[in-house]
Amino acid sequence: MENSREILEVLFKDEKIDLKRGDLFDTSPNPMPDNFDFSRVEGMMLGLAIGDSLGRPTEGMLPENRRSRFGEIRDYLPSSYADGPIGVPSDDTQLAFWTLEQMINDKGFIPGNVAERFCRDRIFGLGSSVRRFLRNFKSGSLWFEAGPKSAGNGALMRIAPMVIPHLKTASPDLWVDTALSAMITHNDSASIASCVSFVRMLWQLLRMESPPEPYWWLETFVDTAKDLEVDEHYRPRGGAYTDFKGPVWRFVQEKVSEAFDKGMSVLEACDLWYSGAYLLETVPSVIFILMKHGDNPEKALIRAINDTRDNDTIGAIVGAAVGALYGKGSIPEIWIKNHSGRTSFSDDGRIFNLFVEAKKLWR
C-alpha cells in the first residue's frame, strides 16, 4: 500500500487535488518539547467538543434573535437529544472524534479508513457537502474522488486531531496527512489550504508558553494559506464586501485587519462578513475572535457562541485553538463536568476514553 506522501504526490501530478504544492510539504514542524504536556491536546479536543455543544441548539440563528430569545449564552442549553442542559455533539464533534478513533485503531492515518468511518453512523446536522461525499463514496467513488469542490467549513471543523499522531515524529507528513484528510469531504482550494493553515497554527499553539500577539493569528494563517490556495474566485454571498473576489487568505488579510484596527467588536465585525458556514465567512470570524480574545479562552468561546451565525462550528474551531494554547485546565470545570462525552446517541464518555487511548500511543 502506498504511504500518504506517495498518494499526495500522485494527486498533485495528476491534478486531482485542488491545491498548490507549497514548500510547506517539505518542511518539518518544530518538535514538541521533551516535557510536553498532553493535557494541551485534551484541551484542544475538549475545546472543540465544548464549543460545538455550546452552539449546537442555536446554530444558524441571527445573533440578535438568539440574544432576544436566550440572553447571553454562557452554558449548555437543553437539547432534544438529552434530558436537561448537557453538552451533546453535532457533526463537528462527531467527525473530529471519529477521525481520532480511526487513527487510534490504525495507529496512524489511513484516509480510506477514515472515509469509511464517516459512513458508519448517523451524523447530526449533516451539511450539504458532507452529504454529497457520503453519497459519492457509498456509490463506489474512491475516497480521493468522493469529496466535492466545496468551500464550506465541514473539513476545517474536524481537522484538529490530525496533529495527534505526529506528536512524537514532527515530520512534514503532518501537512501531507492534513491535506489528504481535508480533501476526503471537501476537495477545494480554500478548504484544504485553511485546514493545513489551522493545523500549523495548532501545532505552534501546543508548544507556546504564553499567548501570541493579536496579529500572530492573522499572519500565521495568511502566510500559510497564500502558498497553498489555487482558486482566486471566491465571492462573499452577503454582508458588506460583496464586491470582493479572490482567495480566502486575501480576504482575511484585508478585511480582518481593517476591522481589528478599527476596534470593532466581534458582533460588529462578524456581521460585516456574515459569519456563516462558508469559509469566506467562517475563517475571518475565527481569526478575528482569536485576535480580540485569544488571551481569554472562556471569553473567546462565549463571543463565538453568541456573536456569530454558524456558532457551533465557529465555537468548535475557536475552542480547539484556545484549548491547544491553554490546555484542559483553562476550560471551565462546569463545561467539562456537564458534557456527555458522546460521539453518537448514547456512547456517554466516549471522547474521554479516546483521550486515554491516544495518550498511550502518542505521548
Task: Write a structural description.
- It is a single chain.
- This protein has 17 helices and no strands.
- The longest helix has 19 residues.
- The protein is mostly helical and 363 residues long.
- It has a single domain, classed as ADP-ribosylation/Crystallin J1 (ADP-ribosylglycohydrolase fold, Orthogonal Bundle).
- 54% of the residues are buried.
- The mean pLDDT is 97.
Biggest β-sheet strands, sense, barrel: none
Catalogue the unreliable spans.
none
CATH topology: ADP-ribosylglycohydrolase fold
Strand segment count: 0
CA-based gyration radius: 19 Å
**Residue fraction in strands:** under 5%
What fraction, in percent, of the residue positions are helical? 40-55%
The tally of domains stands at 1
Distance between the termini: 27 Å
* The CATH homologous superfamily: ADP-ribosylation/Crystallin J1
Shape: globular
Give the overall pLDDT as a whole number: 97
Structural class: mainly alpha
Characteristic terms for this protein:
mainly alpha; ADP-ribosylglycohydrolase fold; 363 residues; 17 helices; single chain; globular
Report a brief summary of the structure.
The protein is mostly helical. 55% of the residues lie in helices and 0% in strands.
Task: Summarize the topology.
Elements: H1 4-13, H2 39-55, H3 63-70, H4 91-106, H5 111-118, H6 128-138, H7 143-146, H8 173-185, H9 189-207, H10 214-225, H11 248-261, H12 266-272, H13 279-293, H14 297-307, H15 311-326, H16 333-337, H17 350-362
Helix pairs in contact: 2-4, 2-15, 4-5, 4-17, 5-8, 8-9, 9-10, 9-15, 10-11, 10-13, 11-13, 12-14, 13-14, 13-15, 14-15
